[in-house]
Amino acid sequence: ALEQIDFKNALEQFQNLVEKTIIQKTKESSGLYTKDEDEIDYDKFYTTTRTLFGSAVKYQNVQAFFRKIISNPDERPEWLEIFGCFTGECDSMSSPSKESMILLVSEKQQITHSVVKRKDVIKGIVKVPLLHFTVTASQRGVITVFSKQRKSFFIYSFYFKQDTAWITGCDFLPNLNYVVAVTESTIILWDYKTKDSMSDGFVIKPMKNCLLCVCTVTMPDNLAKDTILMGDDKGYVYLLTITNDDFIMKQSKAEKDSQFKFLDAESFNIPKRKLHDDWVGKIKYFSALKRFGSCSTDGINSFVLDDIKRLEDNLPVKEFSVPKGVNAFTYCGKAKVIVTGG
Questions:
Q1: Where are the beta strands (DSSP E) in the chain?
Q2: How far apart are CA 283 and CA 293, in angstroms?
Q3: What are phi and psi of 130, to 5 degrees?
Q4: What are phi and psi of 151, to 5 degrees?
Q5: How does DSSP classify residue 116?
Q6: How far is Cα 47 from Cα 8, in angstroms, rounded to an integer?
Q7: What is the dihedral sign for C-alpha 160, 163, 167, 171?
Q8: What is the spatial distance between Cα 313 and Cα 253, in angstroms, rounded to a whole number?
Q9: What is the Cβ-side half-sphere exposure of residue 15, based on CA atoms within 13 angstroms?
Q10: What number of other Cβ atoms are within 10 A of residue 117's Cβ?
Q11: Residue 193: pLDDT band by 50, 70, 90 thresholds?
């Protein structure tokens, strides 16, 4: 959009608009302003800005910019912010040449395929960078794989029929090439690659407690198996390792209402350990740290970060207490920090 306009002229007109707005606000504060036809309110500011720059500016960025100059006229924002771009403190040390400024606008592609129906919600979304995938799972049982190939999206989807249990989370098993999802009482393993997506998969059940979250333990050297972590509503964290042999040795006949093959949960060795005194809200494995993290609204054992071996022994775990608990967390490798949200 910016290529079609005289950007230098448009920028000068925009800066004049900002100056007039600041002068008007200053006069209003001192009681010297009298309303007239040239009054600049938000609607006029937004319309003028869109006229100058077109679709290159977004509503929320214009709104934020206008709010800043109205609330504090002496500390006016940089014009870059009208495009949603922000300069750091170090930018003042760089060359002041306007020609060196580059505006980067990300390209987004909207997927119009509807993966959920009315009164359904997405409960899990996982990106698989190596395979250019995105996996989603809805509360009522729709699991979908968006595969980006040749700049277009191929969509694999199936509906898992369940009685009353809802899907609570999902992830991808990179070695076995299965999608894993958990419901309140079962573990679903779906082979998305098959043509008949409705009939290729396994269900592990029954699980005694209500499963609330799941994640994959990334170990690229174990090509014949995958390990997953799960959290439940009693504060337990589970460790489950699955191999290709399990699909052959432990399967039973499919039930009448489903083509999925069933695996008895009791035939697996599933170590578990109670790490929290409340629901396990999220669980994640950080391959860079070789540690897993789990969080809970428990105000005493709010966040745990330790080796998965701690799930198979009784050694103390590294845990942190946060008032009112932790609902979410993430790790930044570049900054080497873990951030939690309560």
A1: 122-128, 133-138, 142-149, 152-159, 167-173, 178-183, 187-190, 201-205, 211-217, 225-232, 236-243, 251-252, 261-264, 272-274, 280-286, 291-296, 303-306, 319-320, 328-332, 337-341
A2: 6
A3: -65, -30
A4: 60, 20
A5: -
A6: 19
A7: negative
A8: 35
A9: 9
A10: 10
A11: confident
Encoded amino acid at 102, one letter: I
Average pLDDT over residues 258-264: 77
Nearest 5°: the CA angle 323, 327, 331 is 105
State the Cα–Cα distance between residues 295 and 278, nearest whole angstrom: 9
Q: Structural domain boundaries of the chain?
A: 7-83, 122-274
pLDDT tens digits for 77-129?
A: 888 888 877 655 444 444 444 445 556 556 666 666 666 777 788 888 999 88
Average pLDDT over residues 61-65: 88
Domain 122-274 has CATH 2.130.10.10: yes
Listed as own residue / partner, the contacts of 198-204 with beta carbons closer than 8 Å and 24 or more positions apart are: 198/158, 198/159, 198/259, 199/259, 199/260, 201/158, 201/260, 201/261, 202/247, 202/251, 202/260, 202/261, 202/262, 202/263, 203/258, 203/260, 203/261, 203/262, 203/263, 204/262, 204/263, 204/264, 204/265, 204/268
Task: With beta carbons less than 8 A apart as the criterion, state whether 69 and 18 touch.
Answer: yes
Higher-confidence residue of 109 and 269: namely: 269
pLDDT at 151 over 60: no
Q: Are the C-beta atoms of residues 184 and 166 closer than 8 Å to each other? A: yes
Q: Is the pTM of this model over 0.85?
A: no
